[in-house]
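Q: I'm a student working through a structural biology exercise. My instructor gave each of us a protein and asked us to get a predicted structure, then write a short paragraph describing it. Mine is L-aminoadipate-semialdehyde dehydrogenase-phosphopantetheinyl transferase. I'm not confident about reading structure output yet, so if you can add a plain explanation after the tokens, that would really help. Here is the sequence I was given:
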Amino acid sequence: GSSSIPNFFRIMKRQFTETEWGIINSVGNEWMQLDMFHRYWALKESFLKAIGVGIGFNLQRIEFVVSPLQLEIGRVYKETKMLLDGDKEEEWTFEETRLDGHHHVAVALGKQEGSGRKHSDVSSMDPDQPQFTLLTFEDLVASGIPVAPEDSAYWDNFCSKQESPVKQNSHSR
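A: Happy to help. First, here is the predicted structure for L-aminoadipate-semialdehyde dehydrogenase-phosphopantetheinyl transferase. I'll explain a few features afterward.
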């Protein structure tokens, strides 16, 4: 929704460390930079989801040292490391892959509670086995059961609503 990639990066400046921005800005043209931005974003989001916190977490507290710089589609990588408040976090493993030319996936695996073993030690993955299965909408809803009978009046009411909210005058409070 931004007018340009540089403007989008300016808006998102505080979400990444200077080191991360250095890598993002060094990878080539704007589309490659945006691709690297999305990779870092997937990594940060995976960590926040793993620890169960939301957007209030200061993303500059976590810094990723990505490796390798380029990810091959369909291959799972575990080389990327994370620093939390400047200290290297050995307890965390990040599995990354590219689903295709436009989509990064990152999964944060931390130390299992009550165990000295990490998730990555427990799960052995066959590198030749596909790690993700792409599902269609039909696949997802095939076993779905309606929780209520269909109500066509509800649908008609929903469809009659405006597409987006109307901007209100800031003086009318």
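A: Here are two points you could use in your paragraph. The longest strand covers residues 93-100. Strands lie at 62-65, 81-84, 87-88, 93-100, 103-109. It's a good idea to check both against the output above yourself.
Q: Great, thank you!
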